[in-house]
């Protein structure tokens, strides 16, 4: 089964809201600032996670900054793709709408034929009854 998690930039040890350098604890995935991870690891490569108490090590997290030009190109490219998808959706919706109209028109025609036939049948019954009387 699929589940999502919410990640915070806050250090789970010193509660610094937005540490510049962060570390991920290797065994449990908890995040803390690099200074706290280094402090806990002074006695050796493994230490207990202060959040869950698992024996762990850590790796330094490196964040790459996104280039503005790349994001603009991607966004404009996405817009072209999005307008193409929207055009196809509009065509599909129009096709479905036309199918619906045809269905209801045919249904009304069938109902009208039934009414006409019913009226004719009722008239024939009346004529037969009058003949027999």
From TrEMBL:
Metal-binding as UniProt keyword: yes
InterPro entries the UniProt entry points to: Znf_RING, Znf_RING/FYVE/PHD
GO molecular function: zinc ion binding
Biased composition (Basic and acidic residues): 71-103, 112-133
Domain RING-type: 11-53
Keyword annotations from UniProtKB, A to Z: Metal-binding, Zinc, Zinc-finger
Classification via SUPFAM superfamilies: RING/U-box (SSF57850)
Region ranges (Disordered): 65-133
Methyltransferase in keyword set: no
Pfam families for this protein: zf-C3HC4_3 (PF13920)
Protein name: RING-type domain-containing protein
Lineage: Eukaryota, Metazoa, Ecdysozoa, Nematoda, Chromadorea
């Amino acid at each position: 089964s699929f589940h999502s998690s919410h990640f915070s930039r806050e250090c789970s040890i010193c509660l610094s809201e937005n540490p510049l350098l962060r570390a991920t604890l290797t065994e449990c995935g908890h995040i803390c600032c690099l200074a706290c991870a280094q402090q806990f690891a002074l006695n050796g490569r493994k230490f207990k996670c202060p959040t869950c108490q698992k024996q762990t090590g850590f790796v330094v997290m490196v964040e790459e900054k996104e280039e503005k030009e790349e994001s603009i190109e991607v966004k404009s490219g996405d817009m072209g793709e999005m307008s193409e998808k929207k055009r196809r959706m509009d065509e599909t919706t129009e096709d479905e709408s036309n199918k619906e109209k045809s269905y209801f028109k045919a249904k009304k025609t069938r109902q009208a034929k039934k009414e006409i036939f019913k009226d004719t049948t009722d008239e024939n019954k009346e004529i037969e009854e009058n003949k027999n009387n």
